[in-house]
Give the backbone structure.
Amino acid sequence: MFSFNLWYYLSQQTEKIMRIITIVLLMLPIITAKPIYGDKQIYSLLRKQCQKVTNFPEILGIHIYNDKKGKVLQMDIEVKTNDNKNIILAMQAMSQIGQYSKTQFHKFTIIEHYTEQKIPEGYESDAECAIDYFVREKFSQSSWMKDCLNKSILQRKIDNWSILKNNSNQ
């Protein structure tokens, strides 16, 4: 009789432990999941993130739009000089916040507007590549700049417009 009572008691305890383990396993994805935000929230979070950073250039605008390949996060900043530090700060903020978007970003774009009357300069990076560098720290800054960062995107677009204009005149 004693062995039966002991067996019955242990089976009840095991059942309770299994219930607790099941509940914990079911809640684990909810607990560990990163938050996901819509475009308006990403815009607001990015602005707040940039305000926290010391010496962050003035933000002229933040734009979220779709191009042929996917969703793009663009930031226009005003700068005094052409300094890689501004690009690094802006891309880092975009990577830190952009990773939480409901729809993954395809690329991050930065347009630098100079306080003097210069033509703006544009930079773009594949979003996943930027997140891999700034958030996941998968490779070095020089590798990111060499393999992921494209400079003078505005000049490429202007060159393309010139070709189109020349072809239409013929």
Q: What stands out?
A: The chain has two domains: 1-33, 39-165.
